[in-house]
Amino acid sequence: MPEIYVDGDACPVKAEILRVAERHKLVVHLVSNSGFRPNRNPLVRNVVVADGPDAADDWIAEHIGAGDIAVTADIPLAARCLKTGAQALGPTGRPFTEESIGQALATRDLMAHLRETGDIRGGGRGFTKQDRSRFLSALEVAVQAARRA
C-alpha cells in the first residue's frame, strides 16, 4: 500500500491530502522542522525534524520508497524521491517525472540566478482555487497509479 510523504512546511494542500488519504486509507507522513498543529487523525504520522535547511527533505528522502508519493514544491527533493521509484507531485498538481525533472531543476537554478542578479524580483504567482482543484485530481490519479503498480 503506498504512503504519502508531505513536505509540510508551508504546504497549502494538507486538507486535500488528508481527504484523499482517508478515502483510500493511506498513511500520511507530515514532515516539518517548524511547529505545526499536530493532526490527531490515526492515518497521519506527525514528524518533527531538527532545525536545518534540508532536515525535512533529508528525512523524506531517507524514508520514502518505491510506490510512495511525495508532495513537495521543492524540486531537488522531488528529484531525490523520483530516484527511489516514488512519485512526486507539486502542490499545484504538477507531477514531477523522470522526463521533466531535469528541466525543472534547470529552470529553478536559472530563476534563482536571475533573482540574485536583480534581473527579476518577487516570487511566483499566488495559489488559486484552480491549483487546489488540479492538485486534488492529480493526487487521486497518483494514488490510483500507485495502487495498480
Q: Would you mind describing this structure in some detail?
A:
The chain is an alpha/beta fold. The chain is built from five helices and six strands, in the order βαββαβαββαα. It has helices at about 15-25, 55-65, 75-85, 100-115, 130-149; strands at about 5, 30, 45-50, 70, 85-90, 95. A six-stranded mixed β-sheet has the order 3-2-1-4-5-6, sandwiched between helices. It starts with a strand and ends with a helix. The mean pLDDT is about 85.
Keywords:
149 residues, alpha/beta, Rossmann fold, 5 helices
Oligomer status:
single chain
Count of distinct strands:
6
- Derived from helix and strand composition plus strand pairing, the structural class reads alpha/beta
Total number of distinct structural domains: 1
Q: Roughly how many Å is the radius of gyration?
A: 15 Å
Across the major sheet, the strand order is 3-2-1-4-5-6
Strand content: 5-15%
In helices, the fraction of residues equals: 40-55%
Order of helices and strands: EHEEHEHEEHH
Overall spatial form: globular
Distance between the termini: 10 Å
Largest beta-sheet details? 6 strands, mixed
Q: Count of DSSP helices? A: 5
CATH architecture: 3-Layer(aba) Sandwich
| Low-confidence regions | none
The name of the CATH topology is Rossmann fold
**CATH class assignment:** Alpha Beta
In round numbers, the mean pLDDT is 87
